[in-house]
Design a protein that fits this description.
Length: 106
């Protein structure tokens, strides 16, 4: 089966600050964009998998990880995995950057 992805314009690349998150709502999805210090943009679901469901775009970014602002779970911005000793995973999204425009592929 061939899946077609839709690209949704989410932000201007130049307006994203390094090491901080930005929330984008697309339909009922809450999505977080992060610009890493190396300039890469990573996109994940904007809710911690912890029962308290912290907003990850408000978390602290260090390298390729974001720390949930509620209970400090460390979550990979590459594959969405919660780092040990905690467990869980958030959804990740593919991103495309063209002419200063950041698109999320859904
Ligand atoms: S809500 Fe994110 S670690 Fe608890």
């Amino acid at each position: 089966m061939i899946e077609t992805m839709t690209r949704v314009a989410a932000a201007r690349y130049s307006e994203l600050a390094a090491r901080s998150g930005k929330e984008v709502r697309i339909g009922d999805k809450r999505i977080a964009l992060f610009k890493l210090t190396n300039g890469d943009v990573r996109v994940i679901e904007n809710q911690s998998p912890h029962p308290k469901g912290g907003v990850l775009s408000e978390g602290l970014v260090s390298g390729e990880y974001v720390f949930c602002p509620v209970y400090d779970w460390k979550i990979s911005l590459i594959d969405g995995k919660v780092q040990a000793p905690d467990t869980g995973q958030v959804k990740t999204y593919e991103v495309l950057i063209e002419d200063n425009q950041v698109y999320i592929l859904l």
